[in-house]
Amino acid sequence: MNRELLTFFGLKWNPFSSELPFDGLMATPAVDSFCHRVEHHLVRQGGFALITGEPGTGKSVALRLLADRLARTDGLRVAALSHPSSRLGDFYREMGELFGITLVTGSRWTSFKGLRERWLAHLDDTRLRPLLLIDEAQELHVTVLSEIRLLGSIDFDSRAILSVVLAGDNRLLDRLGQPDLRPLASRIRQRLVMAPAETEELARLLDHLLQEAGNPALMTADLKDALCAHASGNPRTLTVMADTLLAIAAEQDREVLDEKLFLETWGEAPPRRANRR
Questions:
Q1: Which of 202, 205, 241, 258 lies at a 20 to 30 A Cα distance from 56?
Q2: Counting Cβ atoms within 10 Å, is residue 138 exposed (0-12), middle (13-18) or buried (19+)?
């Protein structure tokens, strides 16, 4: 959305964009608890944490909130894997870039040894394990997941030197149930399940997005109720529908989005909700 349209709607940014500024993110109590546990336990113990849920339930948002929180932890090295579908060779090349070391192409042992030495040095200096964040982790190959497990511990598996947060849809749970990955699954210390949101939670999210973007009166109460009722508990569905209405309102020069616009767009009367709080 261009600056002219943002000004027309009285917005600082598009509150329904997938590229939402950090100020627009909202942490639920469950996400806040998970971030606290990773910050105060996992990075000091090492091992794995897991975020799972259906697409659109907020896994990537939880990772963004976690990354921002941990960025303020003195001495903690946080890295994010950007290509989870890589094979083992490309995985090592990316890990070398993330942790600032040159790895020898074609030598798995040298790469393995170099990363562990870098993490051990960081642990000795800070008493904190480096943290690796992996979104869309259901795309990781079994060999890469197994390699991460082997990389992250020493002394006959008695000492963890890396912390890893895996985030993925429910296919990731299926993969972790495979025999080859059960050793990794047994090392998951912290979990966050992104369940479908209650209608009231979606309403709080919608109010938060509009407030932070600068125009809490952009939508009527009836339209908010309609969107939350039709989103089926999915925050992404909620914002996609709202973004569609915002684009249509911009085309028609409507400064306020209302229930009539909903009806014109989807051709059905939105269900009524009583006693919205």
A1: 258
A2: buried
Q: List the structure tokens of 277.
A: 């709080």
Measure the CA–CA gap between 37 and 271, rounded to whole angstroms: 39
Confidence of residue 272 (pLDDT cuts 50, 70, 90): low
Q: Yes or no: say if 110 and 123 are a contact pair by the CB < 8 Å rule.
A: no
* Closest by CA position to 137, among listed 101, 179, 100, 188: 188
CA–CA gap between residue 119 and residue 125 (Å, rounded) = 10
Global confidence as pTM: 0.90
How far is the C-alpha of 171 from the C-alpha of 55, rounded, in Å?
Answer: 11
Integer CA distances (angstroms), 16 to 11, 29, 99, 123, 210, in order: 11, 22, 34, 40, 9
**DSSP letters for 195-242:** PPPPHHHHHHHHHHHHHHHT-TTSB-HHHHHHHHHHSTT-HHHHHHHH
